[in-house]
């Protein structure tokens, strides 16, 4: 039972994290918070092309969040298939982002996803 609760809490944390990223990238992409989070200056973030790219990226984060939340509302084995799929997507995106953009992405998004995958897998096996 403890593994089930831990799996759900980790998955919920990652979903909420991606909702935050979605809101930041979609609606507050010129903010001081965005400047600090992404290490970019305000002039760059004001460029309409950059704003469009951030909005697009934010939308993908929303899809990940919704998928993870969906996995928490499902019952039966399908729940774990959904969870594994969306957590794996988050992990892959974090690995790619840490290689191409900033290593901290792996620590902020990848490690929680990896932990959630491990705990969920342990729950299924045990």
Question: How is this structure best described in words?
Answer:
The longest helix is centred in the first third of the chain and has 26 residues, at 2-27. With 126 residues, the chain is mainly alpha-helical. The radius of gyration is 16 Å and the shape is elongated. The protein is built from six helices and no strands. The N and C termini lie close together (10 Å).
How much beta, percentage-wise?
A: under 5%
Please, what is the average pLDDT?
A: 96
Rg from Cα: 16 Å
How far is the N terminus from the C terminus?
10 Å
Alpha plus pi helix count: 6
Helix/strand order, N-terminal first: HHHHHH
Q: Please state the overall shape, judged from the principal axes of the Cα atoms.
A: elongated
Q: What's the total number of strands?
A: 0
Characterize the main sheet: none
Structural category is mainly alpha
Q: pLDDT below 50 for ≥5 consecutive residues: which ranges?
A: none
Helix content range: over 70%
List keywords for this structure.
6 helices; mainly alpha; 126 residues; elongated
Short description:
With 126 residues, this protein is mostly helical. It has helices at residues 2-27, 32-38, 42-46, 48-73, 77-100, 104-125.
